[in-house]
Amino acid sequence: MYRQGKYPITQKCAAAKGIFDITVKCPEIAAEAEAGQFAQIAAEGFFLRRPISICDIDRTNGTIRFVFEVRGKGTEKISELNKGDMIDIIAPLGKGFKALGSDKKAVCIGGGIGTPPMLGIAKKYGKRAAVISGFRTSSIAILQEDFKAAGAETILCTDDGSAGVHGFVTDALKSYLKSAKPDIIYACGPMPMLKGIVDIAEKYGIETQVSLEQRMACGVGACLGCVCRTVKDGKEIYSHVCKDGPVFDSKEVDLNG
Fold first, then answer.
1. Alpha carbons 188 and 114: distance in angstroms, whole number
2. What is the DSSP letter of 246?
3. Does the CA dihedral 102-130-144-190 come out positive or negative?
């Protein structure tokens, strides 16, 4: 069940150039939210809300956290909000990640701004998680200390080699799987990245859940702005990323288009 309301921002900072980190006090939403879900956030002066992934959930303090990149005038307007301001959100929306039992191990993989949704699920596994995150360059790498604080093994990749592994997250995953066998892989990022990860996971027989980055309008499945092709019971159907996802079993979603 989702809720709509205006809630106070309790913390705000710049995570990197053009990337902002805000924490919102909303106990009733924090009590219901799960890792992998998202919110529709109102931007003053704009009719359509902007979908932003929930980065972290603190049920004890009744807060949720968003880490987002300014990609247009709407998200720029949201980034201008400060600590103490009220923010209008609808959340929690969509289907989140499925966590396995307490004896299972996970690899969480984020590409660029697909990294924030990985924090919540990585925290559920703690020391049983490895987090692989990829960025174009070190100056826009985010959340590395948060993953380490959660107890996860943290592997940073940069396209230009300015920090961590020089290469893509798929390269790091191949290397990691030579000596480890996780029970599940979680991933969020650009479609080519997700396809590469799923291809690798299938070779190793590892269950994989992917969170799709898609343009959304309503956020609740009422419009057709975020449809994707999925396969269920051997039949191809169209699903709403906002309602049926954003998290899908990799075997059920068509990553080719």
1. 5
2. B
3. negative
- The dotted CATH code for 3-93 is 2.40.30.10
Task: Specify whether the CB–CB gap between 190 and 165 falls below 8 A.
Answer: no
The predicted model scores a pTM of: 0.94
CATH 2.40.30.10 intervals, the chain: 3-93
Nearest Cα neighbor of 118 from 75, 67, 181 is 67
Going by C-beta distance under 8 Å and a sequence separation of 6 or more, which residues neighbour residue 103? none
Taking a C-beta distance cutoff of 8 angstroms, is the pair 117, 53 a contact?
Answer: yes
Fold (CATH) for 106-211: Rossmann fold (3.40.50)
Helix (H) or strand (E) holding 38, with range, is strand 38-41
What is the rounded CA–CA span in Å between residue 116 and residue 255?
21
Q: What is the pLDDT of residues 91-134, one digit of tens each?
A: 999 999 999 999 999 999 999 999 999 999 999 999 999 999 99
Under 8 Å between Cβ of 120 and 114: no
pLDDT digits (tens, 9 = 90+) for 1-33: 899 999 999 999 999 999 999 999 999 999 999
Contact of 211 with 245, CB cutoff 8 Å: yes
Looking at the chain, the domain(s) classified CATH 3.40.50.80 span: 106-211
Cα–Cα distance, 216 to 214 (Å, whole number): 6
Which residues, 6 or more positions from 59, have their beta carbon under 8 angstroms from its beta carbon? 30, 31
